[in-house]
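Ops channel
N.P.: pipeline sanity check, posting one input/output pair.
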């Protein structure tokens, strides 16, 4: 009887251990550096560097950049929307605000961050 109880305790601990692990995943901590810091001229590029982003559990991270908002008529895009460091080429002759969205996933959870940048015309 004691052996059976001990065995049940071990099984319960193993099951709880696995369940606990899948529930205790921590999401990525997003850190982004934007260059230049101030508004740039329309047609210039912004660099977004998320290479300092990390995961508390050491999980492998994937990056997905998108444009949540662009000035009317703008067709700006990223050079590589799945890289940790991306360049946003803004539209020539169109000034206004861009809202850049980054979703970083660790395969289980994701962290979303948004950044406002703007361009000006001469
Ligand atoms: Ca994680």
């Amino acid at each position: 009887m004691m052996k059976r109880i001990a065995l049940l305790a071990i099984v319960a601990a193993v099951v709880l251990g696995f369940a606990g692990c899948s529930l205790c995943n921590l999401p990525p901590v997003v850190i982004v550096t934007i260059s230049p810091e101030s508004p740039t001229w329309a047609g210039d590029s912004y660099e977004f560097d998320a290479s300092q982003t990390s995961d508390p559990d050491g999980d492998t991270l994937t990056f997905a950049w998108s444009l949540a908002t662009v000035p009317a008529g703008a067709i700006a895009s990223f050079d590589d929307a799945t890289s940790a460091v991306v360049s946003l080429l803004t539209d020539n002759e169109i000034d206004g605000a861009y809202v850049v969205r980054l979703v970083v996933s660790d395969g289980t959870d994701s962290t979303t961050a948004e950044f406002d940048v703007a361009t000006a015309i001469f």
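N.P.: looks fine end to end. Residues 25-26, 55, 57, 59, 106 surround calcium ion (CB under 6 Å).
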